[in-house]
Amino acid sequence: MRKTELAVVGAGPAGISGALEAASYGVKVTLIDRGDRPGGQLVKQTHKFFGWHAKGAGTRGIVLAEQLARHIRENENVTFFGSTEALGYYSDKVLLLETPRGIEPLQCERLLVATGASEKMLLFPGNDLPGVYGAGAVQTLMNVYGVRPGRSVLMVGSGNIGLIVSYQLVQAGVRVAAVLEAMPVIGGYAVHASKIRRLGIPILTGHSIKEAYGDGQVEGAVIWKLDEKWNGIPGTEKDLKVDVICLATGLTPLGELLWQAGAQMEYVSELGGFVPLYDENMETTAKGVFVAGDASGVEEASTAMAEGKLAGLSAAWSLGRVPPEEFTRKREEIRNELYQLRAGPTGQKILRGLETLSKRAKKVTA
Amino acid sequence: MSKRDEDIIVCRCEDVTLADIRKAIGEGATTMDEIKRITRAGMGPCQGRTCRLLVAAELSRYLGKPLEQVMPSTYRPPVKAVKLGDLADMDADPEEVRED
């Protein structure tokens, strides 16, 4: 059977950072991704990142993806398996892979799950009509394949993804009829929202979609105001003629492999859904199984990279490759970096979620 | 059962509507597993990635329990549909592959 010291599932910002960190200590790493190239969601992020300049802020996601992909290619300790999906993880530390060559097992001493997240669906009549897309799908269509999803879009959700994708739709020559937000306030950064507003696109807070209609495809959407209990208010309906409804209503961690590994999982709404308990080394309760990035709680790329690095460092340390004092020093550095990255207002939600998670962890070990 | 619920798809893979889910709950299905087995929600190509949380939310509303107490059903490999033939043809000892 093929063997590797560390298998990393998911070659997004978290997985790549973890793979490179572990490889820098001589660990033989196999990096697995469904995509044909490394980069994960970065390959469609044409916008620039916020945050620290030292940590890649001001760099476009697509450029960062190319840089990371080059580091992977040039690293002789990392083998990249592209167009490959991890189908399962078994108790004898075997990952089952679906590769372009067929199905193969891979024995791994350590596993890093950096599988990211999937988009949340919304319930409304007509929600399966062609023309109803997730925001990630729209971004992939436009920014990776150069295909416009339609002519006129209703964006549901005003978090950063909804706002950024709305702007990119306009850049691609697509009309955005409105951005809806169920909450009473806009979810994303003010700087993104202002850009949208300056273009004359209304951002309607306290609004949601009532239904989509159309003969065989989306021809329009009915929206309405919500009361304080999230119920639609009859009589407030508006009809919007659009051919695309784009859902940017949040992400939820992809944890199938972690459940299979037997890791203790908890539902934490601030983190997007079910996430594994993990310790200060990013190790889950399943020994030798680490987690990083959105799979450990939905956040963003810079924290994903820091978590990935920490997980990669810990995996290398657990394999006996990192001197203890160096491990402790570097771990504190990365944890400090994570702390600073979460210092802003959006970090507060994550910190609340992590607090909940650590309370549950104490209950488990008590 | 409202007409509206019949037009709301919960599981896209298996074409299961909100009406189907509510009917199953009304008939006594109170766990994710029961709903899955009765309606097939979550048994299609994506194996529940899209509908899992939606079904759990519906169940948590009905039972008046927080969502964290509505546990998902067991996650078994494979995480997506694969052909039996491909599994049967599995190469347990593949040659070294060249790097792409």
Automatic annotation (TrEMBL), chain A:
Source organism superkingdom: Bacteria
Protein name per Swiss-Prot or TrEMBL? FAD-dependent oxidoreductase
A Gene Ontology MF term for this entry? Answer: oxidoreductase activity
Origin species, per record, is: Candidatus Fermentithermobacillus carboniphilus
Specify whether NAD is a keyword of the entry.
no
Keyword annotations of the record: Oxidoreductase
Keyword Nucleotide-binding among UniProt keywords: no
- Lineage, highest ranks first: Bacteria, Bacillati, Bacillota, Candidatus Fermentithermobacillia, Candidatus Fermentithermobacillales
Locate the FAD/NAD(P)-binding domain: which residues? 5-308
Query: Which Pfam family is an annotated match for this chain, by its short name?
Result: Pyr_redox_2
UniProtKB/TrEMBL annotation, chain B:
User: Which controlled-vocabulary keywords does the entry list?
Assistant: Oxidoreductase
Q: Which part of the chain is the SoxA A3 domain?
A: 10-88
**Mind telling me which InterPro entries this protein's record contains?**
BFD-like_2Fe2S-bd_dom_sf, Metab_Enz_Cyan_OpOx_G3PDH, SoxA_A3
Do you know which Gene3D superfamilies this protein is assigned to? BFD-like [2Fe-2S]-binding domain
GO molecular-function term, one example from the UniProt record: oxidoreductase activity
PANTHER family assigned: ANAEROBIC GLYCEROL-3-PHOSPHATE DEHYDROGENASE SUBUNIT B
Q: What is the protein's name according to its record?
A: (2Fe-2S)-binding protein
Q: Native species of this protein? A: Candidatus Fermentithermobacillus carboniphilus
